[in-house]
């Protein structure tokens, strides 16, 4: 399991308010970005694998076919607008990525209940998400950016479903939303790596 503990040199701590472009040439920061781009790619692959399982076992494959049912469900898309605004700020983007990972970490319990025979994959995914969140928090601290530490227990209530079918469709949309979230997070990390 990749637990990245990249430490930046002390002089970078003094650049608390420095524009990120000044940090973009830093080797440790670039190493953090490259490793976590790979990590995010792995997590996306695991989510895609779970989406294939949902498609194969539950016959839930196309979002367009399920939009009417979605209206009855309490499934939200975690926002990442700070990661694709013109006024991109690494601090707020990283904070939103961490907050989203926390939400999806908890909502994967819905998937685990839905696909108990794939609990191992869900647990691996949750561990990878926790590690990615830790990596981002560590990097934010190393850069002198403000961080928010979330409680380890999931404070967000899990979605409730009135029927088994709604549970299945809810699981489908949790994975679909999580995949979109990861794509945006990946693009944000890639953008930082290209500065």
The succession of helices and strands, N to C, reads: HHHHHHH
Strand content: under 5%
Structural class determined from secondary elements: mainly alpha
CATH architecture: Up-down Bundle
Shape: elongated
Q: How many extended strands?
A: 0
Q: Structurally, how many domains make up the residues?
A: 1
CATH fold-level assignment: Growth Hormone, Chain: A
Number of helical stretches of at least 4 residues: 7
Q: How many strands, which pairing sense, and closed or not: the largest β-sheet?
A: none
Question: Percent range for helical residues?
Answer: 55-70%
Using only C-alpha atoms, the radius of gyration works out to: 18 Å
> Mean pLDDT, nearest integer?
80
Tell me the span between the first and last alpha carbons.
Answer: 28 Å
Q: Segments where pLDDT lies below 50 for 5+ residues?
A: 1-22
Walk me through this protein's architecture.
It comes from Illadopsis cleaveri. GO terms for molecular function: cytokine activity; granulocyte colony-stimulating factor receptor binding; growth factor activity. It is found in: Secreted. Keywords: Disulfide bond, Glycoprotein, Growth factor, Secreted, Signal. Its main location: secreted. There is one protein chain. This protein is mainly alpha-helical and 195 residues long. It has one domain (27-147, 158-193): Growth Hormone, Chain: A (Up-down Bundle). It is built from seven helices and no strands. It has helices at 10-13, 20-23, 27-58, 67-70, 90-114, 119-142, 164-194. Helix 3 packs antiparallel against helix 7 and helix 5 packs antiparallel against helix 6 (119-142).
């Amino acid at each position: 399991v990749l637990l990245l503990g990249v430490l930046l040199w002390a002089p970078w701590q003094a650049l608390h308010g420095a524009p990120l472009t000044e940090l973009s040439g830093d080797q440790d920061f670039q190493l953090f970005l490259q490793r976590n781009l790979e990590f995010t790619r792995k997590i996306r692959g695991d989510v895609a694998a779970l989406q294939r399982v949902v498609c194969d076992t539950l016959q839930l494959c196309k979002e367009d076919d399920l939009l009417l049912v979605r209206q009855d469900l309490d499934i939200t898309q975690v926002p990442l607008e700070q990661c694709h605004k013109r006024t991109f700020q690494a601090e707020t983007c990283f904070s939103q990525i961490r907050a989203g990972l926390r939400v999806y970490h908890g909502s994967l319990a819905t998937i685990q209940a839905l696909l108990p025979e794939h609990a191992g994959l869900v647990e691996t995914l949750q561990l990878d998400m926790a590690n990615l969140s830790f990596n981002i928090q560590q990097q934010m601290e190393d850069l002198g950016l403000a961080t928010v530490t979330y409680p380890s227990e999931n404070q967000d209530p899990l979605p409730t479903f009135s029927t088994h079918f709604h549970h299945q469709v809810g699981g489908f949309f949790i994975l679909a939303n999580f995949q979109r979230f990861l794509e945006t997070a990946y693009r944000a990390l890639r953008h930082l790596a290209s500065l």
